[in-house]
Amino acid sequence: MYEGLLHAHSGLRWIVLVLIVWALFKAVTGWTGKKDYQKSDRLAALLALIFTHIQLLIGLVLYFISPKVSFQSGVMESQVLRFYTVEHMSMMIIAIALITIGFSTAKRMSDSVAKHKRIAIMYGIGLLVIIASIPWPFRGLGAGWF
Questions:
Q1: Residue spans of alpha helices (H) in the chain
Q2: Is 74 helix (H, G, I), strand (E, B) or coil?
Q3: Structural contact between residues 140 and 65, judged by C-beta atoms closer than 8 angstroms
Q4: What CA dihedral angle connects 23, 29, 34 and 35, to 10 degrees?
Q5: What distance in Å separates the CA atoms of residue 52 and residue 46, rounded to the nearest whole number?
Q6: What is the pLDDT of residue 74?
Q7: So where are the chain's domains?
Q8: What proportions of the chain, in percent to the nearest 5, are helix, strand and coil?
């Protein structure tokens, strides 16, 4: 079960990143071009939101069954254990909260440019936090590209 969820979580990361970039692109072009907020803009933002939440749910399950997560003393002394136990989870929750707040607050706005701006800013910050928190292979944290 662990291996299957880990592969799903790792592979889904690419879909999540593409969806966030797509939503961010649509929001930035809508904001800078002062365009109306279309159904396709909402769809892009909504799909990014949904897939980040699915990714979070898989990540939460992995958090409690992963051998890379430890609740013993000395966790902070190991770079790998500290990353997976504390840093990765907390930063991803922050990023997903930013994306959720961005979508939810934009949904209530009536001005199209303000909606685009809110999504662009919140999804952009969320994306930066996600990119910084992914265990990329070059970081030496024991994770692969998929």
A1: 2-32, 39-65, 79-82, 88-108, 112-133
A2: coil
A3: no
A4: -60
A5: 10
A6: 82
A7: 2-139
A8: 80, 0, 20
Tokens of 17: 């990143």
Q: What is the pLDDT of residue 77?
A: 86
- CA dist 74 and 12 (Å) reads 31
pLDDT < 50 positions in the chain:
none
Environment class of 80 (CB within 10 Å of its CB; exposed 0-12, middle 13-18, buried 19+): middle
Closest CA relative to residue 23, chosen from 8, 13, 9, 37: 37
- 3-state class (DSSP) for residue 73: coil
Could you tell me how many helices (H) and strands (E) the chain has, helices first? 5, 0
pTM recorded for the entire structure: 0.91
Nearby residues of 19 by Cβ (< 8 Å), 6 or more positions away: 44, 47, 48, 51, 52
Question: What does DSSP assign to residue 87?
Answer: I
